[in-house]
Design brief:
Shape: globular
Strand content: 15-25%
Number of helices: 19
Strand order of the largest sheet: 3-2-4-1-10-9-11-15
Structural class: alpha/beta
Length: 614
Amino acid sequence: MCGIIGYIGNTSPIDILLNGLKHLEYRGYDSAGIALGNLNRLMVIKAAGKLANLQQEISQSSLLSSPNRGIGHIRWATHGKGNAVNAHPHTSLNGNLAIVHNGIIENYKDLKAELINQGYVFQSETDTEVIAHLIGFYLQQGSNLHQATRQACSRLHGAYALGVISQAEPHKLIAVRHHAPLILGQSRSGNYIASDIPALIGQADSTLSLEDDELAELSENNISVFAADDTICHKTFKPLTMSADSIDKLGYRHYMLKEIHEQGNITRQLLHKRLPSAEAEVNLPDINISSSRLQAIRQIEIIACGTSLHAAEVGKYLIEELTGISTQVMAASEYLCRRSLSSEHTLCIGVSQSGETADTISAIRKAKEHNAHILILTNRPDSSITRYADSLLPLEAGIEVSVAATKSYTAQLVAFYLLSLYLAEHLHSVDAAQLSALKQELLQIPTQIETILQNDQEIKACAQQFNHSRNFIYMSRGINVATAQEGALKLKEISYINAGAYPAGELKHGPIALLDETLPVVSILIPGGSGYAKLLSNNEEAKARKAPLIAITSSQDKELNKLFNHVITVPQVSELLSPLTTNIPLQLLAYYIADSLGRDVDQPRNLAKSVTVE
């Protein structure tokens, strides 16, 4: 949530800031603003709503001449409404200092009361304005900008990534982070800060991620990084190799549709890298758990939030099926509320697409304190969560722009299949011939995903028939209960239609009371699976209550057309691998329904891509 961009150099910062903010829109926001500085003064321009509103404000303003630096921000409201007053940047009392901030300051009320008692006047409802006044206070006490920022940060409790500019030092941009991501960028025209890599694509040539409590001083031609004790850090910048295509729609109507269609290739590339053939062993070079410790594992915990939590449920099923090790899945926010039973005999797996999910990071930190071996599955191997990792499994799905996760979810599933096979190989828990057969089938999945994507007519027809339904029920049995939960979540996220997901056996224990001709029921049925016959019976019960029925199935049984209003077919795979195929039509169904309703598919209301506050 929220996004930061900053620049200091020999080019006008306005377009750089706006382009950077545009490439951060996927994070979700409700207001935006920039601050510009030249040698004489600072200027702040802010607007509620989308970036177009900010651009209009800028076009109607008398801008500073020859600005040499600037900071920009898109805000997702936490303290105070999403309006122009609460938008960032915020300024100090005399207006000679401006800051942008991602994170939450937990003790801001106490600090605010202290500052008010000293005569400071607050314009906004935010916690961020406290930081601006604090830095301004220390500047007035004679500190330089570096010192004043450090002194202010020493008073803050919580998480923050800050960009700071001040007329006290008009050739400097300060950046500092604590439990919130912040990246530095370099180019021949100047230097940058950003909360995420997409803001720098096409602008910076190389990047560096700040570590916790490091502070950076940026000028037009230089970047200096200081450790928490203010000693100089010698850091190495890495080339920024991502191309503009990675954040371009490439002709697709929405980023979400583009990313859905990337899943076949992403799966193929990940499998090719980690499992080149059915006879090969799974290659996970960043799993650093010794054979003796692996043999001593007595329990596995998987910690995640949102879509990642559904991938974790599939992972639990796979790990227990292939290793026999008891596995628990916990929402990170709930893990923090319970007594930890983690120990040196625990493998704790943290799952986060962004690697910046605050709840998951806090939960992983707690598990590590109890000596669990920490394995991280993330799409961003340079993210904050990896600092706690003993082992790492990168998802390698590329940048996902749409707020609703699609390709990253499939990459998480593939990662769990690879991990489960890897564990089974090292624990010798499954016969070699069975493992080989499973690998062979897994290697066919990319082609099968592409087959589904090329034949979506029935999905479109289904979406058109039910796009005005107010409620949906999704259900399945076994490993695809998680698929039902993820399908329901996708529909809720982007169409704003209420959808519940249940193990099908629970239908009779309450949800059946909801059924009538207005409530479609979506079922995932895999013939040969342990619950197929019972799941058909559950659908017969729903049909008797006049509920419209939609099947996601690999069955070729023509009799299903008599029971279901729509039968959406996927290629035949074993039940164990079916989440990789059955999820694809559910993503498309949610997309086509939302698009037909005119929803903002890529940036649904109230949601953020990266939830960096608890």
